[in-house]
Write a structure and sequence with these properties.
The protein is built from 13 helices and 11 strands. By secondary structure, it is α/β, with parallel strands linked by helices. Strand 7, helix 9 and strand 8 form a beta-alpha-beta unit.
């Protein structure tokens, strides 16, 4: 969208639709914060990944959140508007819709407008490959028609800390949404054993889709006896990770979470290009095993040809982890 949007004289209520996974949502927080700063008196509802949005709501980036799969959202795609839909949307002055392509954004925008929202702005949620622009920066810039011209703000989340975490802990995240994004389990285990030999406590994060990855790491351990952080809400998990000395994880939503918590974060990339997807945070190091891959031309799909993370050895990760941990300790001093 090239031209500015004609806004009502007063913006009282804003509804944002931003479906996506945990990582997509967390990378959207600077754009949502920019929207909040542009309309500081408006009540702001964000619809998308509910667990991740709970973190942004707690931080004050918006006032309320709901799941993209909520009943009233499903009603948008029905033929007859329902009472719940009217309660949610009627009286709203502005809606921002980020979808994976323009056709999907335009379709939902038409439905939202028909449900009673005065001004609807349909936007694409990802840049063209040729632009090689980080997702966070792209989302902030997409709001330019609303008079938002600021660069992406730095965001650091500060959830309630888990006071039961007392020892310096190395948190490892061996899971990821796809197998090709996972560094081999035996290498995570070797890394855990090395840190255990130095006296560190070790923890493994285990979300609903990470059980197999965590079991594979446990089967390869020789010295470390990690705690498993499982069965937690995202807010609870954030409270534990925030106390960590160091976080090492695959390209995943939980790695994005660690970065936004300000924890020294080592992110292991391969199939997907970190130019678009790197975690944002004050102390982030990325190891990109696929930087010379000729098949990573589609930032949304990444490389499906090469087993890139198998080329990343333990020694490389170990050295980077020690350097990051030491630099973090120096800053804290």
């Amino acid at each position: 969208m090239k031209h500015d949007v004609v806004l009502p004289p007063s913006i009282q209520r804003i509804v944002v639709f931003r479906p996506g996974a945990i990582g997509d949502t967390l990378l959207s927080f600077p754009a949502l914060l920019a929207l909040r700063q542009r309309f500081p008196r408006a009540w702001l509802l964000v619809v998308g990944n509910r667990p991740a949005l709970a973190l942004g709501q707690a931080a004050g980036f918006f006032d309320a959140s709901d799941a993209f799969g909520a009943d009233w959202v499903a009603d948008l795609f029905g033929e007859v508007p329902t009472v719940k839909l009217g309660e949610r949307l009627q009286g709203s002055d502005l809606s921002i819709i980020w979808m994976h392509n323009q056709a999907a954004a335009d379709d939902l925008a038409a439905r939202v407008h028909a449900a009673g929202v005065r001004v609807v702005v349909p936007l694409v949620s990802f840049p063209e490959a040729a632009h090689r622009q980080h997702l966070t920066d792209f989302l902030v810039e997409s709001l330019a028609p609303l008079g938002i011209g600021l660069p992406a703000s730095s965001v650091v989340l500060k959830p309630p800390l888990d006071e039961t975490v007392v020892k310096p802990t190395i948190v490892l995240h061996p899971g990821a949404g796809a197998q090709r994004k996972r560094w081999p389990a035996e290498r995570f285990a070797a890394l855990a054993d090395r840190f255990a030999e130095r006296g560190f406590a070790i923890a493994l994060t285990a979300g609903p889709a990470d059980e197999a990855a965590v079991k594979a790491v446990y089967a390869q351990l020789r010295r470390a006896t990690p705690d498993v952080l499982a069965g937690l809400s995202l807010v609870q998990l954030a409270g534990k990770i925030a106390r960590a000395r160091l976080f090492i994880g695959n390209d995943s939503g939980i790695t994005h979470l660690a970065a936004l918590l300000g924890v020294p974060t080592l992110a292991l990339f391969g199939p997907f290009d970190p130019v678009y997807w790197a975690p944002r945070g004050p102390r982030v190091t990325v190891i990109d095993a696929g930087q010379h891959c000729p098949h990573r031309d589609d930032p949304r799909d990444g490389c499906r040809v090469c087993d890139l993370l198998s080329t990343l050895d333990v020694e490389t990760v170990w050295k980077a982890a020690l350097m990051l941990a030491e630099s973090a300790t120096t800053v804290q001093r």
